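tokens incoming
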């Protein structure tokens, strides 16, 4: 049994090392993308597309919004896009940072401890904030597509409901993982007390 446990810990440590490298690489790409995004915004031609007009058309455009960007966007929309990109990038950076710290706990062989649960809960709470912000933005796009005066077509509620259900399933899965970690910590502490 002890040999099997050490082999399992060694395989977790080896796999965790690769995930730590992947997390650090992802954090570097997020920082680079955030720093380069204002330059991308500067290359987009100026136009009269406002925030409300963008939200109204974003729910119905199928070509990746390139047709909206080609016609030009207002300075107000550029500033809002830069702020939104910074917000989402900061959240992603913090989520990946906590996941990296969680994986570092696994790499050290400390799978069921309070520090791992702390990082898992922090990553989950930040993910919940990110998902909530994205769903609110999607809902605003859907609402604006129906009520904005310049909107020619209406958004479909089906993909929005599918996205909500998808995110609820992911949240339930992550809650189950956190719950498993907490049970493992409690069992680990009880085992230490009985020895």
């Amino acid at each position: 049994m002890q040999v099997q446990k050490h082999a399992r810990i060694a395989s977790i440590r080896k796999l965790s090392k690769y995930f730590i490298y992947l997390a650090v690489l992802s954090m570097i790409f997020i920082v680079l993308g955030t720093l380069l995004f204002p330059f991308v915004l500067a290359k987009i031609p100026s136009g009269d597309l406002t925030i409300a007009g963008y939200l109204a058309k974003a729910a119905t455009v199928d070509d990746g919004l390139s047709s909206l960007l080609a016609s030009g966007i207002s300075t107000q929309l550029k500033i809002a896009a830069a702020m939104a990109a910074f917000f989402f990038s900061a959240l992603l950076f913090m989520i990946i940072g906590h996941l990296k710290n969680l994986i570092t706990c696994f790499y050290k062989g400390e799978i069921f401890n309070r520090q791992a649960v702390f990082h898992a809960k922090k990553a989950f709470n930040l993910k919940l904030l990110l998902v909530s912000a994205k769903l609110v933005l999607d809902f605003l796009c859907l609402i604006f597509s129906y009520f904005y005066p310049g909107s020619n077509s209406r958004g479909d509620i089906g993909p929005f409901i599918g996205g909500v259900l998808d995110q609820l399933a992911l949240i339930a899965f992550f809650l189950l993982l956190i719950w498993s970690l907490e049970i493992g910590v409690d069992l680990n502490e009880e085992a230490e007390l009985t020895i």
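note: Residues 2-43 form the longest helix (42 residues).
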